[in-house]
Amino acid sequence: MLCPYFAVYTSLMNFQIDLNKRIRNSSKGCTSFFKQLVQVFFIFPTGLMFLICYDILYSLANFLVMPFLILISGCLGKNWIQPFERLLDTVMYQTTGMNYMDIKGFRSQRTILQLQLESIP
């Protein structure tokens, strides 16, 4: 059950290490204390807890909120789903520093690994 988290965790950990190196080498080099603290937690195995929390957040969002947004979008003719997905991506961007493409790739990689491991007898 935790195998996809370990596989995805290594790529996220490498991303955070590279991000820390880029911040240190840049002339700006100043980030908030909270962002630096979160990046340290991603580098250590405590990052697995963040990944599980992200999964819970996305699962709750897709299970509880998304059906209502689909109904509201269908009835009102306005897209309410895209702003909600942007909100979820913003949460991940603020905590990890990943851009939009990294977030989508990360989520796709995790999903593919979960599906692949479920198909193994």
Describe this structure in words.
By secondary structure, the chain is mainly alpha-helical. Helices cover 83% and strands 0% of the residues. The radius of gyration is 17 Å and the shape is globular.
Write the layout of secondary structure elements.
Blueprint: H1 3-25, H2 33-43, H3 47-76, H4 81-96, H5 100-119
Helix pairs in contact: 1-2, 1-3, 1-5
- Give the count of helical stretches: 5
Strand composition percent: under 5%
> How would you describe the shape?
globular
Can you count the beta strands? Answer: 0
Number of domains: 1
Average of the residue pLDDT scores: 76
The H-and-E topology, N to C, reads as HHHHH
What's the short version?
The chain is mainly α. Helix content is 83%, strand content 0%.
Task: Name the descriptors.
5 helices, single chain, 0% strand, mainly alpha, 121 residues
